[in-house]
């Protein structure tokens, strides 16, 4: 069992909390380890350590902060196999996908290491006797609360952006992937001065205590909408800035005229990658009735053909869900949809044996008021509704309290342009469910959160603008 769960001011400990929780391998149900819940005093110590380190780190040259992030990226790359294995053991992600997330995290650290020293303000045109300019300054202590579905990449992005702009950080990883979070913190902190990165372990209550701490200036949270709202309320009480990427119910529109087999491959990737446990997974599908039949046949065939198994097996294409509690929630949505008239074309049943596996599931005949369409399922489920026109699909896709992302598959350029303008989401992808140029950033809308969570714009979120009017002659 690991005994280094709390980091404050460069000193590791097991925390002072008296309670623990067990993390289990979702493929086998076997325990990965016992993890302590940090006590309120541990939270106080971590925030205090970050506050003490803040002035010195803010005064550190931007180039030196960038160099520290490059060193952190090297440390992550050197232990990439170990980090990826922990991701697979704790949340079930297939090994290659887990390794890809670690590599993405190291790449993000390098991106911010280069962008940080270039991030600055601008001069203003004032009177000739004065100097007028805008500068960006670190906000202070940043709390980073990260999810379990991509624990390394997301943490590297938020911690990296906060640190390179001169902030200090207290990180609380998800209670479902605490071993991954602790090792990552060890690697990142080794490249930073004491107190710049601090760590606490715990559950939702620990996260809320951090978010509501009066010594915190920014709270960056990635996770469910319900948890994000609690974080936002806690931050509002102190005036801390909240950066939130919450849940989504991302639509996929399949237009008439597209190759239904190709469209089915795109839908399968969007719905089933990482067992549907991606923030921008496809959560609802609107397919034109002209191609609905062959599209559904091809999608169901792809779902049935996926090799389900433990993430440690290189041949696995569909790993387990993170735990049995989450699987029960996913299956409950599927069962309710079937009871309300949806038809199961593939999957839809809980397999026997150990682990929290759930098959890739395709549901036809879905309606927008079903929870499987209206809410975030976060599992390998493709709920499909046939529509009579592109306009009908677009109007249905627009109706959601979420606003994270959307995908449109169409060969009609005019419709593509109309769609990206009409969809009230942060990211619109045309003819590809995933992908995009490096550095692209988006702002989620509605129940999906607020603020940039990645890209160069995240550096703006982590800093505050100060306007200076400097008159050289006092009189």
From TrEMBL:
<dbReference type="InterPro" id="IPR015590">
    <property type="entry name" value="Aldehyde_DH_dom"/>
</dbReference>
<protein>
    <submittedName>
        <fullName>Aldehyde dehydrogenase</fullName>
    </submittedName>
</protein>
<feature type="domain" description="Aldehyde dehydrogenase">
    <location>
        <begin position="16"/>
        <end position="468"/>
    </location>
</feature>
<dbReference type="Pfam" id="PF00171">
    <property type="entry name" value="Aldedh"/>
</dbReference>
<dbReference type="InterPro" id="IPR016161">
    <property type="entry name" value="Ald_DH/histidinol_DH"/>
</dbReference>
<dbReference type="InterPro" id="IPR016163">
    <property type="entry name" value="Ald_DH_C"/>
</dbReference>
<keyword id="KW-0560">Oxidoreductase</keyword>
<dbReference type="InterPro" id="IPR016162">
    <property type="entry name" value="Ald_DH_N"/>
</dbReference>
């Amino acid at each position: 069992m690991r005994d280094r769960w709390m980091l404050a001011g460069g000193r590791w400990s097991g925390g002072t909390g008296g309670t623990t929780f067990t993390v289990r391998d979702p493929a086998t149900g076997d325990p990965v380890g016992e993890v302590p819940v940090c006590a309120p005093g541990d939270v106080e110590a971590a925030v205090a350590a970050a506050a003490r380190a803040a002035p010195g780190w803010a005064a550190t040259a931007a180039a030196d902060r960038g160099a520290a992030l490059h060193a952190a990226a090297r440390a992550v790359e050197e232990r990439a196999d170990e980090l990826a294995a922990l991701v697979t053991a704790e949340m079930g992600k297939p090994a290659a996908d887990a390794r890809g997330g670690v590599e993405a995290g190291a790449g993000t650290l390098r991106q911010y290491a280069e962008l940080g020293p270039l991030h600055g303000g601008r001069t203003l045109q004032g009177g000739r006797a004065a100097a007028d300019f805008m500068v960006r300054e670190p906000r202070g202590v940043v709390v980073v609360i990260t999810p379990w579905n991509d624990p390394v990449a997301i943490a590297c992005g938020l911690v990296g952006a906060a640190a390179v702009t001169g902030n200090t950080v207290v990180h609380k990883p998800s209670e479902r992937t605490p071993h991954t979070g602790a090792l990552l913190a060890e690697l990142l902190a080794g490249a930073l001065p004491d107190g710049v990165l601090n760590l606490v372990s715990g559950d939702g209550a620990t996260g809320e205590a951090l978010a509501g701490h009066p010594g915190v200036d920014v709270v960056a949270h990635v996770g469910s909408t319900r948890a994000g709202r609690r974080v936002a309320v806690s931050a509002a009480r102190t005036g801390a800035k909240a950066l939130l990427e919450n849940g989504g119910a991302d639509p996929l529109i399949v237009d008439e005229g597209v190759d239904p087999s190709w469209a089915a491959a795109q839908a399968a990737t969007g719905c089933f990658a990482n067992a549907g446990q991606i923030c921008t997974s496809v959560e609802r599908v609107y397919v034109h009735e002209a191609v609905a039949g062959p599209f559904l046949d091809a999608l169901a065939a792809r779902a049935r053909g996926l090799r389900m198994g433990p993430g440690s097996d290189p041949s696995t294409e569909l790993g387990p869900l993170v735990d049995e509690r989450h699987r029960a929630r996913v299956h409950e949505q599927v069962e309710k949809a079937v009871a309300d008239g949806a038809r199961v074309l593939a999957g839809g049943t809980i397999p026997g044996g150990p682990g929290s596996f759930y098959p890739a599931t395709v549901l036809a005949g879905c309606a927008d008021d079903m929870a499987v369409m209206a809410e975030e399922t976060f599992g390998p489920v493709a709920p499909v509704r046939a529509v009579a026109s592109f306009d009908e699909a677009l109007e249905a896709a627009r109706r959601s309290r979420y606003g994270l992302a959307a995908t449109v598959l169409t060969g009609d350029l005019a419709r593509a342009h109309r769609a990206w303008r009409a969809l009230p989401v942060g990211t619109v992808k045309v003819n590809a469910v995933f992908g995009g140029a490096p550095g692209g950033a988006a702002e989620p809308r509605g129940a999906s959160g607020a603020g940039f969570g990645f890209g160069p714009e995240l550096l703006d979120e982590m800093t505050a603008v100060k306007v200076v009017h400097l008159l050289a002659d006092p009189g």
